[in-house]
Amino acid sequence: MSKVIPINPTQEFKARTRHVLNDPAQRQNFRGAMDFLQAKRRAQFPDPEELQTLRELGSQIRRYSLANLARLLEQLEANLTANGVQVHWAQTPDEANAIALQIARRVQAKRIIKGKSMVSEEIGFNHAMQAAGIEAFESDMGEYIVQLAGEAPSHIIMPAIHKTKQDIAHLFEQEVPGVSYTEDVDALIQIGRRVLRHKFAEADIGLSGVNVAVAETGTLCLVENEGNGRMCTTVPRVHIAITGIEKVVERLEHVPPILSLLTRSATGQPVTTYVNMISRPRQPGEKDGPQEVHLILLDNGRTQAYVDLELRETLKCIRCGACMNHCPVYARVGGHAYGTTYPGPIGAIISPHLLGLETTYPLAFASTLCGACAEVCPVKIPITDLLVRLRNEAQARPDTEDASLRGSGAARSVAQAMVWSVWSQVYSRSGLYKLASWFMSRGRALSPSDQGAWTHSRIPLVPAPKRLRDLIREHVDKK
Amino acid sequence: MSARDQILQRLRSSPKALNTVVPDVARWYDAHRAYADPAQHVQRLRQALEAVKTEVLEVTDDNWVSALLDVAAAKGLRQILIGQGTAHGEALAQKASAGLQIVRYEQPIEAWQTRLFDGIDASLTLARGALAQTGSLILWPTPAEPRLMSLVPSLHFVLLDANTIHADLLAAMTAEHWTDGMPTNALLICGPSKTADIQQTLAYGAHGPRELVVLIRHRVGGAA
After folding, report:
1. Whether A58 contacts A258, CB under 8 Å
2. How many helices (H) and strands (E) does chain A have?
3. Angle, CA of B173, B175 and B181, to the nearest 5°
4. Which residues 17-56 on chain B approach chain A with CB closer than 8 angstroms?
5. Cβ neighbours of residue A418 closer than 8 Å, sequence gap 6 or more
6. For A292-323, how does the pLDDT look when each residue is reduced to its tens digit (9 = 90+)?
7. Pick from A61, A245, A307: which is nearest to B23 by CB?
8. Would you say residue B81 has pLDDT above 70?
9. Which of 128-187 (A) contact B at CB < 8 A?
10. pLDDT for A10 beyond 70
11. Given a cut of 90, is residue A453 above it in pLDDT?
């Protein structure tokens, strides 16, 4: 039989995956967390008809918003500007960081307190600020924990999902002055609260993400449970919000269904503790709130997905994380194995646009294509179709119309292309197929014992001694 | 060409999506609205709030102040923050005992941030309305009742008039014509602050209030 063809993942991805798979404690953490989140989500959607029609509505809203994206971004900018919010545009992470840095320098900021923002992770915001001598401090409890540990988030909604309370107890004991070891979760949260309250009060700038931006009113909507997002957007004298260009919707009435889908899909909550809708900076007579509000609109490869109608569906994402919570691969390898800001199925389909297919194509292959992700996606992104498309792009011959993305063809190998070419010839010519299958079955003793990754944990594949056509003929002859 | 113009140009030069449906949000909600009957609103709101560790009291015009003071006494509160010149705040101030210090939010935050963060036990604000479906309280902070009142003190009292409860968010924004003018900050609040970031274990009192007490005020002599 033919040799198993490696899909050629980068060594880093393979090494990270192997590392996690050999860590039973971490696998247990992820399995438990995924089971918990799946059950919570399921309980939020008891009525299948309501779920399916709401998903369809969510998909329509996101698709309609994307179809009118240029107009809506201009409308959003005009209304925010009229409200007193300063709007900035960035094509790259460097441009986004430069804008934030320029604001920080102008207001002579020394400390930035951050609410949860995956886009800020995407652009390496903390690193860029620290390089410029400005402290960027995470305030979401999960983000605070991973920052304290010098790690990156392993899940877009629950950043410290890979850590047990024992891990966190040790971390706090080592890193927070005056704290002794405790596994009591309430006590651990109160330690974080105490440390971070001072940080909110001291910060010059608050940074946040945006869940939905409303074009018709010029409103930024943020959802959260902890109150740190409200602190970041209310206490410091400057608020910088950063978001991808795709997060805009046209009308305020588009917000309720999107928020309902988001919170129920993400954490299995009917609503978050806080829905925070910000339309302008502090007005004359108001006694709190930031004096300045800025919005940074980031492209960073999103327009690459946008120009292709099939790949544009990727931009419907509302970042709920349900796809990763239901992914059998993510549940086993966790978020860090992917090595990208966005892990799991959504990470596999968005990261190639942000980072290029040349470094991210292995992620598209890290899927069984079981379809669980597409089934739970609240805005009906055809994730498996997009994974297959990216696999094809990764294998495409450069300079052809099949290679349309940055890094297309990165996984292409001459040997693999030849194997598939021969396969195609054999399977499209019946005479050749008969001959080839005869040789395969009769030459089965020559099957290699080492079949690459397949034989690492399985017995070698060996062709059957008789072909199907041989068995049928024997059956007919017996009659 | 600026970053803005380049991004917009790329978007504009992209193929047009065919068969894009204009979403009909109102139609979906009309078909799926679970709490359309106002008679259900108070009960559903209570249920949703109590599910997230919120204390809910049903009170009247006549007794809400004493009900609030009873809670304050039971919890041993020493200070309570009220807005500047609000009718409900002053009603509370008039009846508060000497043991409960009334603090008014009169200065910009910069003038008294340390005291607000470290020296205030509780606050009282009036809700603009509420959402029966999710148990969310609608707050539109004002110069008289600023944003941090509902965030910084450990205990937050919310006074809510029973006749301002809507079925859901779409019903509220439609009935109140939110698109005519959004405030600086509009808030929906459901429960005290919380987190499950440590091993999926739910803990209350993350960064905002540790406790939320909602007083649903009914008109004397009327059902709501």
Report:
1. yes
2. 23, 10
3. 55
4. 17, 20-23, 25-26, 28-29, 31-32, 48, 52
5. none
6. 999 999 999 999 999 999 999 999 999 999 99
7. A61
8. yes
9. 139-142, 145, 158-161, 163-165, 168, 185-186
10. no
11. no
pLDDT of residue A422: 94
According to DSSP, residue B164 is labeled G
Degrees, nearest 5: CA angle A376-A378-A379: 125
Where, residue-wise, is CATH 1.10.1060 in chain A? Answer: 11-40+303-395
B152 occurs within a structural domain: yes
Report the alpha-carbon distance of residue B89 to residue A438 in Å, rounded. Answer: 91
Nearest chain A residue (CA) to B194? A226
Place of tokens 């939020």: A44
DSSP A96-164: HHHHHHHHHHHTT--EEEE---HHHHHTTHHHHHHHTT-EEEE-SHHHHHHHHTT---SSSS-TTTT--
3-state class (DSSP) for residue A413: coil
By DSSP bridging, strand B129-131 and strand B79-82 are unpaired
Indicate the residue of A188, A253, A277 with minimum beta-carbon distance to B186. Answer: A277
Q: Are B8 and A74 in contact (CB under 8 A)?
A: yes
Rounded Cα distance, A101 and A108, in Å: 10
Beta strands in B88-209 (DSSP E): 101-104, 122-126, 129-131, 136-139, 155-161, 165-166, 185-189, 194-195, 203-204
For residue B133, the 8-state DSSP code is: T
- Residue A112 pairs in a beta bridge with A136, A205
Number of domains in chain B: 1
**How deeply is A88 buried, as exposed, middle or buried, from its count of CB atoms within 10 A (0-12, 13-18, 19+)?**
buried
Q: How far apart are CA A306 and CA B81, in angstroms?
A: 50
Predicted pLDDT of residue A25:
87
Which one of A228, A271, A311 would you mutate to disrupt binding with B, by most B Cβ within 10 Å of its Cβ? A271
Residues 6+ apart with CB under 8 A from A150: none
Would you give the distance in Å from CA A35 to the centre of its chain? 19
Cα–Cα dist A275/A271, whole Å: 8
CA angle A176, A179, A182 (to 5 degrees): 115
Q: Quick one: which H or E segment has residue A69? A: helix A69-83
The pTM of the full predicted model, rounded to 2 decimals, is 0.93
Q: Give the count of beta carbons closer than 10 Å to the beta carbon of residue A419.
A: 14
Here the ipTM equals: 0.97
Domain with B48 in it: what CATH number? 3.40.50.10420
For an interface test with B, which of A189, A194, A217, A298 has the most B Cβ atoms less than 10 Å from its Cβ?
A189
Q: Which residue has the tokens 């009525």?
A: A47
B34: exposed, middle or buried (Cβ count in 10 Å: 0-12, 13-18, 19+): middle
**What is the architecture of the domain spanning A75-300?**
3-Layer(aba) Sandwich (3.40)
Q: Which domain holds residue B109?
A: 36-218
> Considering only the top CATH level, what class is A11-40+303-395?
mainly alpha
